[in-house]
Fold each of these.
Amino acid sequence: MNIKRIFGTLLTVLGIGGLIYAAVLFAGVSGGTQAIKEVIIYGVLGIIFFISGIGLVKTVKDA
């Protein structure tokens, strides 16, 4: 298995984890600005990791 494909899978899993964590934080937000900042940060990082991981997996060709 190609190392880039493994890295892409790892990024995808981290992205999914970040998005799930952001959703859990969002469900428990009581309205404080600190909690909203955490949701935004984890959500954006999760989206970036997820999209870059999927893109890396899709573009790497098997030898």
Note: The chain has a mean pLDDT of 89.
Amino acid sequence: MSHGFPKRARLLRPAEYRRVFGKACRVSDDAFTMLARHAEGDTARLGMAISKRNVPRAVDRNRIKRIGRESFRHRRPGLPVFDVILLARPPASALDRKQLHRKLNALWQRLVRRCGES
């Protein structure tokens, strides 16, 4: 499996987001929350909800989304078939690239441990 981010690896429709928000397994830290729900399909999919209220500057929102996608791309081959939504909290905007990667990697591990068998 490649490390790309094709359309089939993304949550695209509002109904797909509602399904995950409706009944999700949740892991979080001070900067992020990940919501996950088992999905039908052949690969994990990612959606992001990085709100202007939590991360006011567009440049920070875009950086967080870019790093979130990159982190997901590298983790996707080892993930169970989940639909995952990444939410950012206000402290995320103050973190540098290494800190964001470190936090996201820790959350991916916790997500698989906590939600992988349910």
Note: The chain has three helices and four strands.
Amino acid sequence: MYKPSIDDMLAGKQSRYSLVIGVAKRAREISDDFNERGEICDDKPVLLAVEDFKNHKYEIIEQDIND
């Protein structure tokens, strides 16, 4: 089983909750893209989404609570 380092993906600024939500939303986008094209994905969308965040293709931007 593939276990990427959460600390590497968080980069010290996001909460784990934000990371989970971001990965889930990205996985849904990936799944929807494959369904629209009628293709079958060999890898699980969640693993592809984790790779996107790990490779810094996507970034989580959290709103400051004081705003």
Note: The mean pLDDT is 83.
